[in-house]
Amino acid sequence: MDVNHYRFRSRWTLTAPAPVVYRALERVEDYPRWWPQVREVTRIDDTAGTARIRSVLPYDLVVVLREERRDPAAGILEVTLTGDIDGRARWTVTPTEGGGCLARYEQEADVRKPLLRRLAVPARCLLRANHTVMMRAGRRALAAHLEAV
Prior knowledge:
This protein is α+β, with helices and mostly antiparallel strands.
């Protein structure tokens, strides 16, 4: 097992309709407005941007996100990640009964940031918990953002 390889999965149940959630998630440059841990997003071009992310632990991750798939009909957004982590991330947004939706997040990545690579074994559970905290905060923040719009 590669200690610098991670797989994350999150499920966000939201009361907003799937198309509304999809539109919010596809506007990555707006994430810093509602998701506190996404500190900055800078567009490179129409299909790529740089993001700076920081959750509870005192380190930033800087990644370039490149769009691989944007399929509103299927509710799929997929990007490749390069930089402090290399891999893929994917949102799948599907409607649920009652008019809400389920937003599933899947990420598979290898850590490249030297400090995090050195801490891979002793801090693995902290790094996973840090991601969990970020995703929980993101779900709450997106729900609040969509209610305010």
